[in-house]
Amino acid sequence: MAIPPVLLILSVLLFFLLRYITQKKRPPPATKHLPPGSMGWPYIGETFQLYSNNPNNFFAEKQRKYGAVFKTHILGCPCVMVSSPEAARFVLVTKANLFKPTFPASKERMLGPQAIFFQGGDYHARLRRLVLRAFMPEAIRRKIAGVEEIAVRVLSSCDGRFINTFQEMKTYALNVALLSIFGKEEQSCIEELKQCYYILEKGYNSMPMNLPGTLFHKAMKARKQLGFLVAKIISSRRDSEAKTDQFDAGDLLASFMESKEALSDDQIADNIIGVIFAARDTTASVLTWILKYLAENPSILQAVTEEQEEIRRSKGKIEGDEEGGLNWADTKRMPVTCRVIQETMRVASILSFTFREAVEDVEYEGYLIPKGWKVLPLFRNIHHSPENFPDPAKFDPSRFEKSPKPNTYMPFGNGTHACPGNELAKLEILVFLHHLTTKYKWSISGSKSGIQFGPFALPLDGLPIKIDSLAEKN
Ligand code: HEM
Ligand SMILES: *[C@@H]1O[C@H](CO)[C@@H](O)[C@H](O)[C@H]1NC(C)=O
């Protein structure tokens, strides 16, 4: 008996349909497939779409279209972007061993190939111990007076001027970073180091072409010089250590030089330059956004100012003198100011995402992430999801009166590479805001608003403001 062709086709379809349905129920699917998404043009992929306007629009649009996990192709690399708390946890925390940090080779050469960001395994763990030792609360509380001195100096240099907020905050953050790394090292050395660092920085985002005359070439030369300068400081410390037989500067360099786990001079230079890089523009961007949000929200500024004035008054009483310096306990009595910092880091999400690379084929929720593909946890999307943060675009520090759920709020990342400098970052921001709000007023000059990326999110033109001391006014 001949089977009518229609029935044959129907039964074949039914077969595939049944297989499809049963497959979906069986936990590890026999045929893993790539996440949804589009790859754009060959090689250039969707790079232009990403960089043509605000990259955050690109990410948000993709997530709307394809869901929390999607594939795309940027800067010559196929990648999977993940934007749910669960997926970020998978990549950064629970399966961190399957995803290694990854940077363009030119950036690695510029910062130093042995710097902490690029490492995994034992060497990374050892570096982290040394870095965390220098930046844990017990270590940085001893630096408060020094940080405060820098804040006061930067602020008084701005008094009565129109300033580019970001530029001034970079000066502040660099000086604090150098204090935490070198302690009270000889100033002429530090000044020379800064000059080299400025040249390095100019070349960082340039085309990686090592030809005489290019910014990249100059940056690589400055990088070499930085290595010499750090080596010089190391050897002078070794000399003084030999002389005095005791050396406890309690700074990052001391931690790197400490005998049991001592690093080589090259490893120390790579990591010191890496820490300066990690510490400076990040902290400066966050501070810049805080000044913007406070200027735009007078009632929140009022609440912060009252909190800080209360601390100032209480210090005057306790210490009896004109102005007792801040101490660690004071910085723990600033909940309103802390929430402003938290909310700023959420709304601004200055690191929109980070990069990892799959070290083998990885399966996530039935999707295949092929070996060698980049994986980008999108912090900004997670911080702007209305599920995690209702009315996400609104600047509302009071939402942090309740702690956010795990992996919904990661301004400092999470897992093995999470920011070891977060305590110092928070401390230096609090100290700065204490002096700013109790002694100065500022207003945004110009009406342009917008975001620029370089590569951290930043108010347009670095936020031009006019800043004046309150004393002058009275
Ligand atoms: C508000 C300012 C800061 C923000 C928002 C920030 C954010 C981050 C994030 C998100 C990461 C993880 C990146 C990843 O997983 O790929 C990170 C790593 C790192 N940060 Fe920060 N950071 C800040 C300030 C600092 C400061 C002040 C220092 C040093 C004193 C610092 C030193 C580092 C280092 C060394 C790493 C690499 C850690 C590793 O790879 O194990 N950061 N930071
Ligand atoms: C990091 O991940 C762990 C494990 O999922 C979680 O308990 C913790 O809250 C996360 N940290 C943040 C900042 O979300």
- The CATH architecture of the domain at 35-103 and 350-383 would be 2-Layer Sandwich
Query: Tally of extended strands?
Result: 12
Measured as a percent range, the helix fraction is 55-70%
Small-molecule components bound: protoporphyrin IX containing FE, 2-acetamido-2-deoxy-beta-D-glucopyranose
Choose one word for the global shape: globular
Strand order of the largest sheet: 1-2-8-5-3
* Biggest β-sheet description: 5 strands, mixed
Rounded radius of gyration (Å): 26 Å
- Which percent range describes the beta-strand content? 5-15%
CATH class of the domain at 35-103 and 350-383: Alpha Beta
- What is the structural class? alpha+beta
Count of individual helical segments: 19
What is the distance, rounded to the nearest whole angstrom, between the alpha carbons of the first and last residues?
A: 105 Å
The residue ranges in which pLDDT falls below 50 over 5 or more consecutive positions are 24-30
CATH fold annotation of the domain at 35-103 and 350-383:
Uridine Diphospho-n-acetylenolpyruvylglucosamine Reductase, domain 2
Mean pLDDT: 88
Pathway: Plant hormone degradation; abscisic acid degradation
GO cellular component, one term: membrane
Function: Involved in the oxidative degradation of abscisic acid.
Protein name: (+)-abscisic acid 8'-hydroxylase
Would you kindly provide a written description of the structure presented here, covering whatever features stand out?
The relative contact order is 0.15. The protein has a five-stranded mixed sheet. A three-stranded antiparallel sheet has the order 4-12-9. The chain has 474 residues and is of the alpha+beta class. The chain contains 19 helices and twelve strands. The model is unreliable at 24-30 (pLDDT under 50). The chain has a domain at 35-103 and 350-383: Uridine Diphospho-n-acetylenolpyruvylglucosamine Reductase, domain 2. Helix content is 55%, strand content 10%. Bound molecules: protoporphyrin IX containing FE and 2-acetamido-2-deoxy-beta-D-glucopyranose. The site of 2-acetamido-2-deoxy-beta-D-glucopyranose has 6 residues, from helix 4.
